[in-house]
Design goal:
The complex is a heterotrimer of chains A (280), B (295) and C (402).
Chain A: E1 5-16, E2 19-30, E3 34-38, H1 45-52, E4 60-65, E5 68-73, H2 77-82, H3 101-107, E6 109-111, H4 124-132, H5 140-144, H6 149-165, H7 181-193, E7 199-203, H8 211-227, E8 231-235, H9 239-245, E9 248-253, E10 256-261, H10 263-267, H11 270-277
Parallel strand pairs in A: 3-8, 3-9, 6-7, 7-8
Antiparallel strand pairs in A: 1-2, 1-4, 4-5, 9-10
Helix pairs in contact in A: 4-6, 4-7
Chain B: H1 2-32, H2 39-56, H3 59-82, H4 90-112, E1 117-118, E2 128-131, E3 134-137, H5 138-160, H6 162-172, H7 174-179, H8 184-208, E4 212-213, H9 219-232, H10 237-256, H11 266-281
Antiparallel strand pairs in B: 1-4, 2-3
Helix pairs in contact in B: 1-5, 1-8, 1-9, 1-10, 2-3, 2-4, 2-8, 2-9, 3-8, 5-6, 6-8, 9-10, 9-11, 10-11
Chain C: H1 2-30, H2 43-67, H3 75-90, H4 93-99, H5 112-120, H6 124-157, H7 162-181, H8 186-189, E1 195-196, E2 206-207, E3 213-215, H9 220-237, H10 240-250, H11 252-257, H12 262-288, E4 290-291, H13 298-311, H14 316-333, E5 342-343, E6 346-347, H15 355-370, H16 383-401
Helix pairs in contact in C: 1-9, 2-9, 2-12, 2-13, 2-14, 3-6, 3-7, 3-12, 5-6, 6-12, 10-12, 13-14
The chains are: A alpha/beta (280), B mainly alpha (295), C mainly alpha (402).
Chain lengths: 280, 295, 402
């Protein structure tokens, strides 16, 4: 683990009312690695992702990206009274940082969703093209009065290129939601790539895939990591996939970390086995 | 002092009338997440029914009949205009509600010829009474009492009966309740029936106090009642009632301000200003629960 | 190259439309003995003018409701702002005393037409130039005022969920209506009374020195303004921003995750939509030749919303088409439903004042419930596309026969 740390979570806690979804989670995602976050259903994996991507403001904790603090929070208001987590004082003196998801994406963190969220009335091509909007050099006036033709052309060309690379160019004029499931997943990844991310968060990318597709996905993830010099952080249930591609694995249950290590270590960890088999 | 009492009395009375409409809004919104724009017009139709019924039938027959017909109207609107759109986007249902409102208003214009109709004098309710030196109608005194009684009855219904339990379940989680075998459509119909019945009672009280009914007479009280429901926290019956009383009182106070200020034109606008302020600072209202979205 | 060609065809189409409108309203003056329908007093022209005005407002509402997925019901309020801005800026100074007589004249005696007449003179071409400039600037300012207020109200309300947004914008429109009727503001808004005396569509008819109309342009002018505005809206919808709006409509959470700032883009759509609603409101004032707050009720918003629904939420051409149908039906074709009618000695039942609107609202309910796609769904009317589709069907039919 000698690479520079891309994403760093420190004491991240997310509490909804009285329920602690993520508890004091700390982890590191080094650059150019594939890191997995695993755990049984309801362990708080997606909630952790939502904290990283700005969907939720964590109740407490610090998240840095490329060494810069991005999200920082401590319990306020009602939460301060009911707070059940730890380290509440650690960040209390510092200002709260709670960017919106689009600001996070702009920093270079892109994500996919567990339950595919493609724009249903748009074509495959437009789905990717919209993701280019964020980084386009234009304003409303140049867009309306066609002063941005150059930029528009560049966006379209880049979109086309990306679709070709992902093998989606033959279906580019289809409605996104008319694609078969596997391709929809692939399109979501292509769309995320279109935002020019440094870090890609994949939320259960193999959900609903058959073993063959899962195998292909593993190669695909490695391939895009190398091609776009990405860091990948993924949530997954398919153990084959996780063990196959991850450089390092964090395991959480009931919001708290129960194990971490390289795949072999995690595989033989007694706590992990218990959590997955449901042994008390 | 007398002036203050009279303003306060009529404020409470107006508030009570809004409360009866607001409960219909809050129940329907709690279950269907729909702003039932037609609810105010159902209230107006109930008023018109009151006029036509009492013209031909004795009061003791006509008033119950008004309530029954209004209930049927509310039930029918739900079945015809909202039920087919259960799976449609929420915007479509709201548009349908606006369409129903438009239809009811236009039909009322057609039937009445667009003329303001005078509400009949209902014995006892319209009689005057002297409270602390202020002349007022019995309806003004009776409204808040009646509202309280109805609200207590309704909360009992919702907290104690099976239908009430089903209503609470559906408003918490539509899909799960359906999976649990609750007959969604009956629950929704029950909601509309209760809402319409209260609107009918509200219309009798409201229009006894007002000189005339026009086809547009329902839309403004309707909107205000909705604001009251939002103010109290949508889905909460006590919230809607308290919100309605506050709005009713504020409105009468504004109307009662010296005419040289000429602010009575703002009596409606005030309600909406209040709405915007609530939505900005406390969108869940006084007694509502904050909801989070699932990603 | 291909793109350019397509555009020439569209431009040609628009020019032909303009020439046709000018021809339509002048033909009775050129060739005597034309049927009543082509006379300037015919309901045809009322319908065309009103529909031109309404289609702009409908399209602006569609931009917001159909393309961005924001359910706003404030359109009448923004129209009111536009109408009043236009009216206040363009009432000639010498008319002000008469218009504002209840308040002892207007609070400020400034008038755009007078300003330009001071520069270009008030006869012949000079007066035409000043009329055009004054109207143009007043229309743009009308839009800007509406847009500015949209920005102010947008800060709190655009963070709200869809249905709360609807009721908040509706409420905002009601607040505006009350403010503009407030007697204390009488010297500016003329209180609850109407402002009139400003340039209307008929002011654009060209007359000779004796006052005879040489060339009627009163229908062409609203067509022209609306067309320009709708073209701008279409350009926006087809731009990168338009796609971003659609992504917000389809899935807010995904849009935000892909770097599209929700608040910024919703605000953009809201302000732009309100700008054009403001321009539409100013044109509405020109059409009815007065500006009065009580005209801009929530019923007006509902009417426009229903037009958008009939045309198809998310279709610009659908909105335009629906507006013309709607206005023609309500102002002209269904008028007969409002008057009693006898077939021989048989009195047709039900027909009397108000029946038209009942029929109308039933038709609307039927559309909402059974044809929720509206006329166009979210497709656009496209002559080339229609042609292609026809050809495809034709060739398919041919193949089958073979």
């Amino acid at each position: 683990m000698d690479n520079k740390i891309a994403l760093h979570l420190e004491n991240v806690t997310m509490q909804f009312g009285g329920v602690v979804s993520v508890n004091n989670l700390s982890l590191d995602v080094p650059e150019n690695k594939i890191i997995a976050l695993i755990g049984p259903n309801g362990a708080g994996k997606t909630t952790a992702f939502n904290c990283i991507t700005g969907v939720y403001r964590p109740t407490n904790g610090l998240i840095t990206f490329m060494g810069e603090p991005v999200v920082r929070s401590h319990p306020t208001g009602k939460d301060a009274k009911n707070y059940k987590g730890e380290n509440a004082d650690k960040y209390a003196k510092e200002s709260i940082l709670s960017p919106t998801p689009d600001q996070i994406t702009k920093l270079g963190i892109a994500r996919t969703f567990q339950n595919i969220r493609l724009w249903k009335s748009m074509t495959v091509f437009d789905n990717v093209l919209v993701a280019k909007h964020m980084r386009a050099k234009q304003n409303v006036f140049s867009a309306v009065f066609r002063g941005n033709l150059h930029e528009e052309k560049r966006m379209r060309e880049e979109t086309m290129e990306l679709l070709k690379e992902q093998g989606l160019d033959s279906v580019k004029d289809e409605l996104a939601t008319s694609l078969p499931y596997g391709l929809q997943r692939r399109l979501e990844i292509a769309r995320a790539l279109a935002t020019d991310p440094k870090l890609l968060l994949l939320d259960e990318p193999a959900a609903g895939m058959n073993p063959q597709e899962t195998l292909e996905l593993a190669d695909f993830v490695k391939e895009i990591r190398d091609k776009y010099k990405l860091t990948v952080f993924l949530i997954e249930h398919h153990m084959d996939l996780v063990m196959n591609i991850s450089d390092y694995i964090y395991v959480i249950d009931f919001g708290s970390e129960i194990a971490r290590g390289v795949p072999e270590e995690v595989q033989s960890n007694q706590k992990v086995i218990e959590a997955y088999l449901g042994v008390a | 002092m007398e002036y203050v009492i009279s303003v306060l009395l009529s404020g409470i009375s107006v508030g009570g009338q809004y409360a009866l409409i607001a409960i219909g809004y809050t129940l329907v919104y709690g279950i269907l997440r729909l702003i039932n724009f037609a609810h105010g017009d159902v209230f107006m139709v109930a008023g018109l029914l009151g006029i036509y019924m009492t013209a031909t039938l004795p009061i003791s027959v006509s008033l119950p009949l008004v309530i029954i017909i209004t209930v049927f109207l509310g039930f029918a609107i739900e079945r015809v205009a909202y039920k087919p759109l259960r799976e449609a986007p929420r915007m479509s249902v709201m548009i349908s509600a606006i369409g129903v409102s438009y239809l009811l208003q236009n039909t009322a214009t057609y039937v009445t010829g667009g003329q303001p109709m005078t509400y009949p004098v209902i014995p006892f309710l319209s009689d005057t009474v002297n409270v602390a030196g202020t002349q007022t109608k019995w309806v003004v005194i009776l409204t808040p009492i009646l509202v309280l009684v109805l609200v207590i009855a309704l909360t009992q219904l919702i907290n104690r009966t099976k239908v009430g339990m089903a209503m609470r379940a559906v408003s918490k989680d539509f899909e799960t309740s359906r999976l649990m075998g609750i007959k969604i459509n009956s629950v929704i119909s029950a909601t509309f029936i209760i809402g319409s019945a209260l609107a009918a009672v509200g219309s009798i009280l409201f229009f006894t106090n007002y000189p005339a009914i026009t086809p547009m007479a329902g839309s403004m009280p309707g909107l205000k009642a909705f604001v009251a429901a939002v103010f109290g926290g949508i889905g909460s019956i006590p919230g809607a009632v308290i919100g309605a009383f506050i709005i009713g009182i504020c409105e009468t106070i504004i109307k009662g301000l010296p005419s040289s200020w000429d602010v009575s034109v703002f009596s409606d606008a005030f309600t909406f200003a209040l709405l915007i302020v609530i939505l900005v600072f406390k969108p869940q209202g006084l007694f509502g629960e904050a909801a989070t979205d699932k990603v | 190259m291909k793109v350019k060609k397509k555009h020439t065809r569209e431009i040609a189409g628009i020019i032909i439309l303009f020439l046709f409108v000018i021809l339509l309203e002048n033909i009775s003056g050129v060739i005597p003995g034309m049927p009543a329908i082509l006379q300037p007093t015919s309901p045809l022209f009322t319908v065309l003018k009103k529909a031109a005005v309404y289609s702009l407002v409908a399209v602006s509402m569609n931009l917001l409701n159909g393309f961005t997925g924001l359910f706003s019901l404030g359109q009448a309020g923004f129209m009111l702002l536009g109408a009043y801005t236009y009216a206040i800026l363009t009432v000639p100074t010498d008319q002000k005393a008469q218009v504002y007589y209840l308040f002892g004249g207007c609070a400020f005696d400034f008038s755009l037409p007078d300003l330009f007449q001071g520069i270009f003179g008030n006869t012949g071409v000079g007066s035409a130039v000043s009329l055009i400039l004054a109207t143009l600037i007043a229309l743009i300012l009308a839009g800007c005022v509406a847009g500015f207020f949209a920005y102010l109200i947008g800060i709190p309300v655009l963070r709200l969920k869809s249905d709360y947004l609807a009721i908040a914008t509706l409420g905002f429109a009601e607040i505006l209506r009350a403010i503009f009727q407030w007697q204390k503001l009488g010297p500016v808004t003329n209180g609850a009374n109407m402002i009139k005396g400003f340039p209307t569509f008929s002011s654009f008819n060209i007359t000779d020195t004796t006052g005879n109309t040489i060339l009627r342009l009163s229908t062409f002018v609203p067509f022209f303004i609306t067309t320009v505005c709708i073209i701008l809206i279409v350009c926006l919808i087809n731009s990168s921003y338009g796609r971003a709006f659609k992504s917000i409509r389809d899935d807010e959470i995904a849009a935000e995750a892909m770097g599209i700032g929700l608040f910024k883009h919703k605000m953009l759509s809201f302000v732009i939509s309100s700008f054009f609603a403001g321009v539409g409101g100013a044109m509405f004032a020109m059409y009815v030749a007065n500006a009065q707050a009580k005209a801009f009720t929530s019923v007006m918003t509902y009417e426009i919303l229903l037009i958008v629904v009939i045309g198809g939420i998310g279709s610009v051409s659908g909105s335009v088409l629906a507006t013309f149908l709607y206005v023609a039906c309500s102002e002209w074709w269904l008028r007969f439903l409002d008057s009693e009618m006898y077939l021989g000695s048989f009195k047709v039942p039900l027909l009397r004042n108000g029946f038209r609107m009942v029929v109308f609202s039933i038709v609307i309910m039927v559309i909402v419930l059974f044809f929720s796609e509206g006329i166009m769904g979210d497709n656009e009317l496209n002559l080339a596309g229609l042609h292609r589709r026809f050809q495809r069907k034709h060739s398919a039919a041919k193949k089958e026969r073979e």
